[in-house]
Amino acid sequence: MPVTYRVTVTNVGREPASNFWVDLYVNPSRPPNVNEPWNELARQGLAWFFDGTLQPGESVTLISFPRSTTNPFGYDPAASSPTWNGRLPPGRNTIYVYVDSWNRNVSGDIRSPFGAIEEGNETNNRADITIVVSE
Question: Of 46, 52, 70, 115, which residue is the least packed, with the fewest Cβ within 10 Å?
Fold first, then answer.
């Protein structure tokens, strides 16, 4: 079944938020946590790098098409599933999105347990939905 993901990220904090990753996991082996990119838990997923700043109360909607000059809020093809074809397999699919999902250095060592942005509430960065696709 063809799908288009639209992920809306809202800064509900009191400070600006900048330069963070958002990962989308399709049928991961378990629910994701910070510093676990989609490809460590799932065979298929997408990743967006938001290189702007969200002021308190502002939102951005990310979309499941590759980033380009005409689609600046598309996913990062280099950090996303090379097999992403915009489809979900038949059956039950669990989709997770994790905002501020990643903050490791080049060697892969974890630098911060908070991701790129330390927040007053780290518990509201993950969302999930289950979608059943008929054959």
Answer: 70
Residue 27, both tokens: 């049928």
Chosen CATH of 6-133 out of 2.60.120, 3.10.20, 2.60.40, 2.30.30: 2.60.40
Handedness of CA 97, 21, 6, 67 (dihedral sign): negative
In this structure, the chain runs to a length of 135
Beta strand spans in 1-120 (E): 6-10, 17-26, 44-54, 59-66, 74-75, 91-99
| Torsion angles phi and psi, residue 39, rounded to 5 | -75, -5
The dihedral region occupied by 57, where left means phi > 0, alpha psi between -120 and 50, and beta the remainder, is left
Helix ranges (DSSP H) in the chain: 38-41
Query: Of 62, 91, 60, which is closest to residue 4 (Cα–Cα)?
Result: 62
Closest CA to 20 of 97, 127, 134: 97
**pTM of the shown model:** 0.89
Summarised one tens digit per residue, pLDDT across range 48-85 is 999 999 999 999 999 999 999 999 999 999 999 988 88
